[in-house]
Request: fold
Amino acid sequence: MMSSDQKDLAEAVGRAIARQRVRAGLTQEEVAERLGVGNEAVSRIERGIVIPNIARLFDFASIFGCEATELLSEASPRPDDQASRISRLLTPLDQADRQLLVEMVERLSDRLSQD
Reply:
């Protein structure tokens, strides 16, 4: 049985894998086929029931065309990792859209810090 912290980590990694799978335009079935596992195995990982080992994280990253560190940093509660994630999200946007998003984050941060 997983501890509460392990369960939280498994769920966060699972969500990151699911997001990257969707970004890559793949179904769970397609990912399962590429991994040589059943559909249920991918589903259980994405739902946080099972946490993948390091080798499997690299397999997922290869399939999705991303770095394994992206899967882990998306799941990280550390502000530095979260800032890196936001930076990756901003990169493909044009200057005006990046500025708009930064201003929105600033306003939201100000509002949340007042509570």
The chain has a mean pLDDT of 91.
